[in-house]
Amino acid sequence: xxxHGAPADPIYSELRRKAFxxxxxxxxxxxxxxxxxxxxxxxMHDGYDLALTEADRRRRPLLRGGCRQRQGVAVAASVxxxxxxxxxxxxADCKVAKVAREMGRTLDTEGWKExxxxxxxxxxxxxxxxxxxxxxxxxxxxxxCFCTTVQDVTDLTGKQxxxxxxxxxxxxxxxxxxxxxxxxATPMSRYRQWLTHKMASWVDQFxxxxxxxxxxxxxxxxxxxxxxxxxxxxxAADRARA
Length: 242
What we know:
The protein is 40% helix and 13% strand.
């Protein structure tokens, strides 16, 4: 997102342009995964140079070229390889399809954005906040979180100053601090900001959800907050009022 924002981040854009990306398609679903519901897995379809799928018991990977196929083909040509047979391709595809059927979580995303916007004052947010520690674990493990802050530092002599960009989290009070205080002073407002950004305003910004369905936020939450259960609860209350 840093490469396609307005304005784009020139440092990140250059690093991203030079990166060589290898995707590994999943061969086993986790208990907290729901990438099928989000349309992001378990098989990668774009954004990579090479994709690997373990095609047989000998754990030999099936290689496929991606969106930047020339780079992928060049790297593949530098290692011993051969053309895959039809049976090997079918076996790899069947393995990925099996993973898709065994997701640990499912989620109905139909009308999700509008539903969350309608429920910004839902009492469920306070129920979540009563458990949330605002520790930021979910943002630290989320592969799509990209919030940063800027810090100015000097050396001991005071003669040299540097400006550093560092990772930040929307769960910290300092993240939304402006003159006079933080505009999201409560855990409820910060959790609501995080979830509605992932599932609603991200769609307005980038045309897609900001959640890939990896389930890392569920796994690493110290109080067991499950994003899929919270969205389902808000949807259920929304339907009950309809």
